[in-house]
Write a structure and sequence with these properties.
Blueprint lengths: L3 E6 L5 H10 L3 E7 L3 H11 L2 E3 L13 E4 L3 H13 L3 E5 L6 H13 L4 E4 L6 H12 L5 E9 L4 H5 L14 H4 L2 H11 L3 E9 L12 E8 L4 E7 L9 E6 L2 E6 L2 E6 L2 E6 L16 H14 L7 H4 L1 H12 L1 H6 L9
Protein name: Gfo/Idh/MocA family oxidoreductase
Pfam family, one: GFO_IDH_MocA
C-alpha cells in the first residue's frame, strides 16, 4: 500500500494526539513536523523518526506531503489553511476553524476553490456515546426531541495562560472558555438539536481570571432552534477540577442522560444504562476523550477514496457561529471585543 505523506504544524499540547495516530497508521507516514520554535520540532521529529522544520511554507513545495494537520494557535488556523488549500494540500485543522467568523468565511471560500479537502477536528462526534444519542434521535423511538442541556465545569489556573501568551487574548485566541474549552459541547448541542439557530440569549463573564485574561472564563446561553428545540448551556473554567461533561436530552417519551460518557435512558420512571464506552480516557487530558484517532483515520479514508469528508468547512464552522452568537448576545462581550460586535472582528 502506498502511504499518504503527512505533516503536522505545531508541537504544542495537542500535537501528540495527531502524531501518535499517524505513527500507528499503516496507510499514512508522518514525514515532517513544524514549529516556529525549531528545538520543539527537532525534539518531536526525533521521537517520531521524521524531519523537522520551522517554516511551514516549505510544505507548499513538497509533493510527497499530501495531508497537513494544523495544531497551531487559533489565529493561525485560517491563514495557514488558505495557503495550504491553494497549494492543493488536504488540511485537517484542530478546532476552531478560525478565531473569527470573518476568517472562517475566508477558509470556507478557500476550501470551495481548492481541489483538496478541509476537515475540522470535532472528535467528540465520534464518541460512542455521541453516536448512540444520534441514533436515538434519528430513530424516533422516544418521539420528538424537545429540549437539551449541557454543562461544562472545568478548571484553568493562571499558569495555563501565562505560559502561552496567545491564550486569553481576543486577537489570538478569539475568545476564552467558549471558543476553546466548551466549543466541543456546543458543537454537540447544535448537532443533536438539528435545525438552524433562530435566537440566542446569554452572557459571558470573567469570574476568577480577570487579572490574567481579557476574555471570558464563564458563560451561559439559551439557544432556540428553528425546529422548536431549545438548548440550555452553562460552562466555566472557574471550578477547581475538570468535572465530566454532563448532557441531558428530553424527548416526548423519555430522556437521555450522559454522565462520564455513559448514556442512560430514563423512561417510565426507570433509569437504565444504554451505552457504556469500550474505551475510557485517563490522565491529565482525559477530557479530550478517545476519539481523535477515529476522526483522523476517517479523514484519511475519505481522502484516499476521493469522498467528501463530512466535517468540512461548512459543518465545522457551525460551532464557531454559535460561539460568536453567544458573544454577540452578551452586552459585556460586545463592549470589549475588537470592533464592538462578536461577529464583525
Amino acid at each position: 500500500m502506498d502511504k499518504t505523506g503527512a505533516a503536522v504544524i505545531g508541537c504544542g499540547t495537542i500535537f501528540d494526539q495527531h502524531a501518535r495516530v499517524l505513527h500507528d497508521m499503516e496507510e499514512a507516514e508522518l514525514l515532517l513536523v513544524v514549529d516556529s520554535e525549531v528545538t520543539k520540532a527537532r525534539r518531536e521529529a526525533e521521537r517520531y523518526g521524521c524531519e523537522a522544520g520551522s517554516d511551514y511554507r516549505a510544505i507548499l513545495e513538497r509533493p510527497d506531503i499530501e495531508v497537513v494537520h494544523l495544531c497551531t494557535p487559533h489565529h493561525l488556523h485560517a491563514p495557514m489553511a488558505e495557503e495550504l488549500l491553494a497549494a492543493g494540500k488536504h488540511v485537517l485543522t484542530e478546532k476552531p476553524i478560525a478565531h473569527t467568523p470573518k476568517a472562517a468565511e475566508s477558509v470556507r471560500a478557500a476550501a470551495a476553490r481548492s481541489s483538496a479537502q478541509l476537515g475540522v477536528v470535532f472528535q467528540n462526534r465520534y464518541n460512542e456515546s455521541s453516536r448512540r444519542i444520534r441514533e436515538v434521535i434519528e430513530s424516533g423511538h422516544l418521539g420528538r426531541l424537545l429540549c437539551l442541556k449541557g454543562a461544562v465545569t472545568w478548571s484553568r489556573p493562571p499558569e495555563y495562560y501565562t505560559e502561552n501568551d496567545w491564550r486569553g487574548r481576543w486577537a489570538t485566541e478569539g475568545g476564552g472558555l467558549l471558543i476553546n474549552q466548551t466549543i466541543h459541547t456546543l458543537d454537540l448541542l447544535q448537532w443533536f438539536a438539528g435545525g438552524e439557530i433562530e435566537r440566542i440569549a446569554g452572557s459571558v463573564t470573567t469570574d476568577t481570571l480577570g487579572d490574567y485574561i481579557e476574555v471570558e472564563d464563564t458563560a451561559h446561553a439559551c439557544i432556540d432552534f428553528s425546529n422548536g428545540v431549545r438548548a440550555l448551556f452553562y460552562g466555566t473554567n472557574a471550578y477547581l477540577t475538570n468535572s465530566p461533561v454532563e448532557l441531558e436530552l428530553i424527548f416526548e417519551q423519555g430522556a437521555l442522560l450522559q454522565r462520564r460518557d455513559i448514556v442512560y435512558l430514563l423512561q417510565d420512571g426507570e433509569e437504565t444504562e444504554l451505552c457504556r464506552p469500550s474505551q475510557t480516557a485517563t490522565g491529565a487530558k482525559s477530557y479530550w476523550g478517545v476519539s481523535h484517532g477515529l476522526l483522523i483515520r476517517d479523514f484519511y479514508r475519505h481522502v484516499r477514496e476521493g469522498r467528501h469528508f463530512w466535517l468540512d468547512a461548512e459543518e465545522g464552522g457551525r460551532a464557531l457561529d454559535l460561539v460568536h452568537g453567544i458573544y454577540s448576545a452578551s452586552r459585556i462581550a460586545t463592549s470589549i471585543m475588537p470592533g464592538g460586535r462578536g461577529y464583525s472582528s
